[in-house]
Design goal:
By secondary structure, this protein is an alpha/beta fold. It is built from one helix and nine strands, in the order H-E-E-E-E-E-E-E-E-E. The strands form three sheets. Strands 2-1-4-7 form a four-stranded mixed sheet, with no helix packed on it. Strands 3-9-8 form a three-stranded mixed sheet, with no helix packed on it. A two-stranded antiparallel ribbon has the order 5-6.
Length: 144
């Protein structure tokens, strides 16, 4: 093998290692939220009420023979064809009543809570202290 060929192989090897590191590090970001499932069947939603957190995804599965939507005015509008699925990510806390635009008698609600506090996720856990005295500012940035 010539020196030039060995150099090319080494360069290709370094490129593969670097690409692997990028892929590996790319998966180290913020953990994704939970996926909650809602069935659309018999011209109804099941469950009728769902509690999720900011960052979670809602997935609607249309088990009916007609199209449905999950529509919360000003928040999300997911059109789901028969035997298909549709998704929406929850980005804002609050209570979101939604309907099917095609069948307005289909009604449900999603309560989206603020993202859960996770110690070790770049924040400190509060430590006990005397009443009326803040011992950690861990939650100060989250208050609104």
């Amino acid at each position: 093998m010539t020196a030039m060929a060995r150099g090319s192989l080494r360069a290709a090897g370094r490129l593969l290692v670097a690409a692997g590191a990028v892929v590996w590090l790319g998966g180290q970001g913020k953990p994704s939220g939970a996926v909650h499932h809602v069935a659309m069947k018999a011209v109804d939603y099941e469950p009728k009420r769902l509690v999720a957190r900011v960052g979670d995804t809602i997935e609607w599965a249309n088990d009916d023979v007609v199209a449905h939507t999950a529509t919360a005015k000003g928040s999300f509008d997911v059109n789901v064809l028969p035997q298909r699925r549709g998704r929406a990510s929850m980005t804002t806390p609050g209570t979101f009543a939604y309907i099917c635009r095609y069948h307005p008698n289909m009604r449900a609600e999603i309560l989206v809570e603020r993202e859960a506090f996770r110690p070790g996720a770049g924040q400190q856990e509060a430590t006990p202290g005397p009443p009326g005295r803040r011992t950690s500012d861990a939650g100060a940035a989250r208050a609104s």
